[in-house]
């Protein structure tokens, strides 16, 4: 029977546990799929030190105080006969590490890789592969972006360029360390280095990692305090990638030089209107929660709906793109279910705004029932709905009217092109 | 026993202040640190072993046998051990 040690305090035990957890994190960072048993690690060290295991930890050669048992939120030191300790430690390790985290992570990684590869093959036009609802994967960069449920807009990013077999290891390291951080966000990257912004309770840091080196340990070693106001615009990664060019200058009357001004334009969009046409005939309108755009555009002879989401953490915009052909199953549910989409596709702008706001209010009612705050941007949408631009009897702002006209034209062009492309394929 | 680790105490090595700890807590801390450092070093040493060798070693409970196998496969094992100890210490104090 294991009894709590009497010569201990909850505070001291908690501190001991913190010190041990720190050591445990270092081991976890290694991210090896094969675990070294706790007994093995101890036996190696004690033998190497020349200290018999049976006398190292207790004045009683038959008992060792080794197990940290959770009692509420307090870890207590307990003592037990050595044989029982070994059994319990091995059982504990097996349950927690082998069957718990390791298997779960491995399963998730296997699924992630399988679905990613499948997606790459099936959707060659897409700028980003949607791996699962809360995890995006950028094939060309081997970059994962993870939205953390319940953490608002916080995202985590890990990027690496090892062969497929190494991906899971990288992600495991990421998962094991991530509890220390709230947010990672990539900024400027060069050919051989990735740069992350990491926000933690200790503040925001700029982290650099050589792409050839995967260890998060090295990220940590390279960390230094970063002065946020001097952050450079996130341009290098965008400029290099043709697939992001669509984001570089989406407003004709407000040329966008980088993503920072892109974000400003997004806010202006909310003030001036919700439907925008660009010279490439794409049509842009804000997403329902005002965290990004829905974009309808043509790619590869097919109309696509693109959802571009903007993170405004630290005033630094960060774009996640999700794209699929208009008629693909990916959008099927939302299109069938949404009156908002129907209004938009029919060109009923006022109806679109009204229904969008109704939809937001319905969602807010549900959220209120759960004790959650209204969706971000609700007030902005209410403001848009009150804007004279969208009042049936009020004249539209001339420039906005121009955009609407362009939008109508653009939509027709897209429809015509899509029809022509379809006819071409059929013939 | 390895010369490198003669009278090695992880608490002293990592410069942890235990002045406010009870003796039982210090023992538990020493034991836990030994466990973690041992795991760390063995994992780092795994790059010198074949997958099969490492998996076989990862569950051994006889310290002498572990050291014997490592010395067979890793030249200058004690030097590398010292190096990994330094690595662990540096990471611990980040």
What does this structure look like?
- The complex is a heterodimer of chains A (427) and B (94).
- Chain A is an alpha+beta fold and 427 residues long.
- Chain A has three domains: 3-105, no CATH class; 125-230, no CATH class; 236-426, no CATH class.
- Chain A has 13 helices and 17 strands.
- Chain A has a five-stranded antiparallel β-sheet with strand order 13-14-15-16-17. In chain A, strands 1, 2, 3 and 4 form a four-stranded antiparallel β-sheet that branches. A four-stranded antiparallel β-sheet of chain A has the order 5-6-7-8.
- Chain B has 94 residues and is mostly helical.
- Chain B has one domain (21-92).
- Chain B has helices at residues 10-13, 23-45, 51-57, 63-73, 77-92.
- The model of chain B has no long low-confidence stretch (mean pLDDT 84).
- The chains are: A alpha+beta (427), B mainly alpha (94).
- The interface between A and B is large, with 50 and 52 residues.
Short description, anyone?
The complex is a heterodimer of chains A (427) and B (94). With 427 residues, chain A is of the alpha+beta class.
- Whole-number tally of structural domains of chain A: 3
Mean pLDDT of chain A: 45
Most extensive chain interface and residues per partner: A-B, 50 and 52 residues
Q: Runs of chain B with pLDDT <50, length 5+? A: none
β-strand number of chain B: 0
H-E string of chain B: HHHHH
Helix tally of chain B equals 5
Residue runs with pLDDT of under 50 for 5 or more positions of chain A? 1-6, 52-99, 108-282, 286-292, 297-337, 387-411
Features:
heterodimer, A: 427 residues, alpha+beta, 3 domains, 5-stranded antiparallel beta sheet, 4-stranded antiparallel beta sheet, elongated, B: 94 residues, mainly alpha
């Amino acid at each position: 029977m294991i009894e709590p040690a009497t010569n201990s305090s909850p505070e001291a035990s908690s501190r001991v546990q913190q010190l041990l957890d720190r050591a445990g994190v270092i081991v976890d960072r290694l991210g090896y799929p094969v675990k070294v048993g706790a007994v093995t690690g101890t036996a190696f060290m004690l033998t190497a030190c020349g200290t018999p295991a049976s006398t190292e930890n207790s004045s009683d050669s038959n008992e060792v105080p080794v197990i940290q048992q959770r009692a509420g939120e307090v870890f207590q030191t307990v003592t037990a006969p050595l044989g029982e300790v070994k059994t319990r430690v091995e059982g504990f390790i097996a349950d927690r590490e082998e069957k718990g985290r390791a298997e779960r992570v491995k399963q998730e990684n296997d699924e992630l890789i399988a679905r990613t590869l499948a997606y790459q093959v099936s959707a060659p036009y897409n700028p980003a592969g949607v791996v699962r609802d809360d995890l995006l994967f950028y094939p060309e960069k081997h970059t994962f972006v993870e939205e953390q449920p319940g953490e608002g807009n916080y995202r985590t990013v890990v990027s690496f360029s090892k062969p497929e077999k190494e991906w899971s290891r990288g992600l495991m390291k990421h998962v094991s360390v991530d509890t220390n951080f709230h947010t990672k966000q990539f900024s400027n990257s060069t050919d051989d280095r990735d740069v992350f912004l990491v926000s933690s309770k200790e503040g925001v840091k700029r982290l650099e990692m050589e792409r050839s080196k995967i260890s998060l340990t090295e990220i940590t070693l390279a960390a230094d305090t970063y002065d946020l106001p001097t952050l450079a615009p996130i341009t290098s990664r965008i400029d290099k990638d043709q697939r992001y060019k669509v984001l570089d200058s989406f407003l004709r009357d407000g040329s966008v030089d980088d993503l920072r001004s892109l974000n400003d334009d997004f806010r202006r969009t909310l003030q001036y209107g919700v439907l925008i046409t660009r010279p490439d005939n794409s049509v842009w309108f804000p997403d329902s929660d005002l965290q990004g755009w829905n974009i309808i555009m043509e790619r590869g002879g097919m109309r696509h709906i693109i959802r571009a989401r903007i993170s405004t953490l630290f005033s630094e915009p960060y774009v996640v793109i999700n794209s699929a052909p208009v008629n693909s199953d990916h959008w099927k549910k939302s299109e069938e279910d949404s009156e908002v989409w129907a209004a938009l596709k029919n060109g009923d702008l006022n109806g679109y705004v009204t229904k969008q706001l109704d939809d937001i209010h319905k969602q807010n009612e549900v959220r209120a029932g759960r004790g959650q705050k209204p969706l971000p941007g609700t007030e902005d949408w209410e403001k848009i709905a009150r804007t004279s631009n969208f009042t049936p009897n009020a004249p539209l702002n001339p420039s906005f009217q121009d955009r609407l006209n362009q939008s109508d034209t653009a939509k027709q062009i897209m429809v015509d092109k899509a029809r022509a492309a379809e006819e071409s394929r059929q013939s | 026993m390895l010369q490198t680790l003669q009278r090695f105490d992880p608490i002293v090595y990592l410069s942890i202040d235990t002045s406010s700890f009870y003796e039982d807590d210090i023992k538990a801390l020493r034991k836990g640190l030994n466990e973690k450092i041992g795991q760390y070093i063995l994992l780092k040493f795994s790059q010198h072993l074949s997958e099969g060798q490492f998996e076989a070693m990862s569950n051994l409970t006889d310290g002498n046998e572990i050291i014997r196998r490592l010395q067979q496969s890793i030249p200058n094992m004690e030097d590398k051990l010292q190096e990994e100890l330094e690595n662990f210490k540096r990471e611990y104090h980040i």
